[in-house]
Here is the input.
Amino acid sequence: MDDGWLETRTARTLTFDVPGWPGHDPGQHVDVRLTAEDGYTAQRTYSLASAPEEGRLVLTVQAVTEGEVSPHLVAQMRAGDECEVRGPVGGWFRWTAGTPGPVLLVAGGSGIVPLMSMVREKARTGDPAPFHLVYSVRTPDHVVYTNELFALSRTTPGLVVDRLYSRGGLPDDTRAPGRLRAADLPGPDATDVPPVVYVCGPTGFVESATEHLLDLGHRPSAIRTERFGPT
Here is the structure.
């Protein structure tokens, strides 16, 4: 792996060279296993952040207090260090270039990671599907991929990015800080064809976002969710 870089104070992006890696579909994940010198092992699951690429994968990891794997990946892992990865894993929470119809992405905190893989693949392939990303974080300091999202929103046709803040925003924000609301999300009639919806974030966020989406009229079968929480 390379040395990676910090996205926020507690989130780090790491790039791994994986011989024989077949590539993946955006939205999939891998199992990462670390082995200590005494033989103790710990394994956690992380979403893939990169667009599909053979022999190489990118993870963005948020350090979890008292975690066994994420603090090591964020604060201690260095270029040349090795770990085991298994994958790609996941069949339902996927988007591939060429899939017809618009896409609505709803991210809470580090739930942006698998959705960023989809955004990057859209940009890489020039896929014409309309993408609308609604990204909710505590404060501007918690935004992951902030510079890349800013650039992609201006250079990728059909991509709309809305950033929302739950604790504290920017001085010129027109939306007061607060948790995700139904009014923050587009209804299914915002496009000619109802979108496929991908929601990712902490369990409470995913449950609340899903309720809002259903209240707005999105079909349950069109909503795909991925959630995470304490292990």
